[in-house]
Structures are given as structure tokens and as C-alpha cells.
Amino acid sequence: MAKLVLVNSGRDYEYGVHEPLHLLVLAAYAKKHGHQVAIADQIAGEDIFKKIKKLNPDYVGITGTTAVINEAYEISDWCRKNGFKTILGGVHVSVMPEEGLEHADYVVKGEGEEALIKILKGTKERIVTGNPITDLDKLPKINRDLINTKYYQKGKDRNPGTHLHFVPPNTKLNSVLFTRGCPFNCIFCHNSWRGLKVRFHSAKRMIEELKELETKYGTEAVFFMDDDLLCHKQRIVEFCELFIKEKLKIFWGCQARVSMVNKDLLQLLKKANCKQITFGLEAGSQRILSMLKNDTTTIEQNKKAIKMVKDSGILACGSFMIGSPGETEDEIMQTKKFIIENDLDGFGATVTTPFPGTKLWEMCKEKKILPPKINWKNFNLNQLTFGLTEISQERMENIKKNL
Ligand code: SF4
């Protein structure tokens, strides 16, 4: 049996409103295999160094997104200096394992569960590829007592400007995740390189987790972190029917593709306490939308879906991207016009960012616009990374502020 601390890295991460759900799954999986696991979340303000020293584990497993990967590397370097073996995992090091290996004893490529167990058993490999879990319901249930659930429940109050428009102040909010992957492959999204089959927890398992949140943690609202909660029609119908039958009180919001909604489904979602649907609407210009989403969506489809959701009494929100390849100011103004004309209940805009491994990243490579030294800290979705558009950083900040 090994002693393991799993660390969520990101000192100043402003989006720290969600629980580290992937770490909770890894923790449950490692525990099922006989290991002793704790979680330390830097994003939630924990003094992770103190916790690691106190727990004195055999291994420290660290995850971090591209924007905070430098912090993950700092933690890993510190651990190694202090005699702890480290394992780095997550999307960033899955794409750049050699870079990760400069800072860690092991790097996990891909899904972490099986790879982690292999490492804890003492494999000699340093880059360990994890096989995707095919049946998610076979994964053990997560144990939220490993984290400070009360801290996350106040996520919206700490960040009132988030996308969680359906959550009133002082609501106990938690996050849940019941899907891995997405059947589409937008050029900016991590799903575009993984090529993994989409996998789902069953409706029954979803209800069990919501019930536990309601009864054990007093949760009043949840946000589904699934990339597209509605992409499996039968599952979402079953989920809503069970939700209504079990008389759950939690209200919730989710993300979905516009092509997944129709009037009947929206009625059912409403009955099952759905209060907000956020679509990845991306742009008001068809040229940009087609480029980002590989010609899978039209502006008209986006408009129709927003109207349908609003008519059903559910909040319709959207996320947009600006600064896409070759995008002009005029095209960004089309996005602004789209937001105003369609009377969205909430929206957020990020700067198009070519994350490693995505098709967009490959495009930048082909165009030879990747600089020799990249500062990952700039991959925070708030600033231009490099040369995708001719608009200056200063101008972009201004446009973003005034969208
Ligand atoms: S952006 Fe959304 S729809 Fe596109 S691949 Fe990613 S998760 Fe799927």
C-alpha cells in the first residue's frame, strides 16, 4: 500500500469555483486498490506544502491546466527537493510528456486511473499511458469528504461574475461530472486531439450522486461540468424522469450543443429543475463559427436554440471566443451584435487560445507562428497568445471589456 497526496495546482487561479472532480475520481480508484489518499487543493487556498509535509506521502500526484502548469512544475520541483516522488498528470502533460518529465519522476499520458495504479505498484516506465475507462459506472463513487466541500459550495458568492447565472446568492452549489469526452471536434478544444469514444455514467448513478449531495451536504444547486450533458438523448430523458420520480429538489445548469435541444426535451428538462443551459456559441460571424466548429453549426441554428430555451423558461447563456485566426474587428462586432439581438440571459467571452494538442495548435505549428519559448501563463483565455489575428493585445482587451 502506498501513501498518496493528490494536488490541484494553481495559486492565483481566478476560476476556482469548482471541486477537483477528476482528483476525487482518482482518489476513489486508488483507495479501491488499497492505497491511502488525501487531496490538497491550491486553487481552494490550501497550504499544500504544509499539508504534504505533514502527511509525508510516498508519492505526490499533481495536475494542472496549461495556464497553471508552471505552478504544477514548481510544486513538483519542491516535492522532489524534499524527498517526495512525484507524478504529473492532466491534459497539458499528456500532450507534452517530455516537458513534464523535466519536473517529475513520472508523467501520466491520457486518463489517469490505470496509469496511477501501475506507478504505485512500482513500474519502471517514467511516461505511463493510461487506457481510457470504458464503463464509467464501474468506477467507485467519489468521496467529497476528502475536500472542503463547504468552500466550493460558496464558489458563486466568491466569484459573482461567473457564468453561473442561475444561482442566487447564498446558495449551496456543487459541481458534478458524468461524461467523458464529446463526439464533436472543434479546433480549439482538447476533445479534438483525444479522439476518445464518449462515455457516460448511467442516469441511475447520476441520481444517486445528486441524492447524496442533497441529503449529506445540503446542496441546493449543481452545475454539470459535462461538455455536453444532452448529447446522449436516452440518458438525459431517463435522468429527468428519475429526477422527477425521486422528487429531488436540487436545481441545476448545464452545457450543451445547440443541435441537442428541442421543445419536448426542454419541457422535460424544465420539469426536472433545469434552470440554465449554456451553449458554446463562439461567434456572430458564420465564417469564424464554421472555422472553429468544423462547419457543424450555423448562426441560424444558434439563434433558434436560444429562442427555444428562452421560450421554455430556462435561462439561455452563451460562451464566445474572440481573436480567432484572421478575425477582424468587424467580425468581432458581429459577435457583439449577435449577443445583443438574441437577448441572452448571460454570456462570457474568452480569447481564442491554441492549447497544445488541439487542431488550432497544429495550425499554428504549420504556419510556423509558435515562438521558440512559450510562457504557459499567457494561456489563460484572457490574452492573445501569438499572431492569430492582427488586432493588438491592447485593442483586444478594450474590445473584450466592451462586448
Ligand atoms: S468545444 Fe464543445 S462541442 Fe466542441 S469538441 Fe469541445 S466539448 Fe465538444
Description of the molecule:
With 403 residues, this protein is α/β, with parallel strands linked by helices. The chain has 2 domains: 3-130, Cobalamin-binding domain (Rossmann fold, 3-Layer(aba) Sandwich), CATH 3.40.50; 148-401, TIM Barrel, CATH 3.20.20. It has 17 helices and 14 strands. It has helices at 21-32, 48-55, 69-81, 91-95, 97-101, 112-120, 149-153, 155-158, 191-194, 203-217, 233-245, 263-271, 286-292, 299-311, 329-341, 359-366, 393-401; strands at residues 3-8, 36-41, 59-63, 85-89, 106-110, 127-130, 173-176, 179-180, 199-200, 221-224, 251-256, 274-282, 315-322, 346-351. The chain is globular and about 60 Å long. Bound molecules: iron/sulfur cluster. Iron/sulfur cluster (SF4) is lined by residues 182, 184-186, 189, 191, 227-228, 257, 280.
Q: Provide the list of bound ligands, each named once.
A: iron/sulfur cluster
- Strand arrangement within the widest β-sheet reads 2-1-3-4-5-6
CATH class of the largest domain: Alpha Beta
> Helical stretch count?
17
Any idea what the CATH architecture of the largest domain is?
Alpha-Beta Barrel
Q: How many domains, in number, for the residues?
A: 2
Number of strands: 14
Main β sheet profile: 6 strands, parallel
Backbone shape: globular
Give the distance, in angstroms, between the N- and C-terminal Cα atoms.
54 Å
What Rg is obtained from the alpha carbons, in whole angstroms? 21 Å
Strand content: 15-25%
Estimated helix fraction = 25-40%
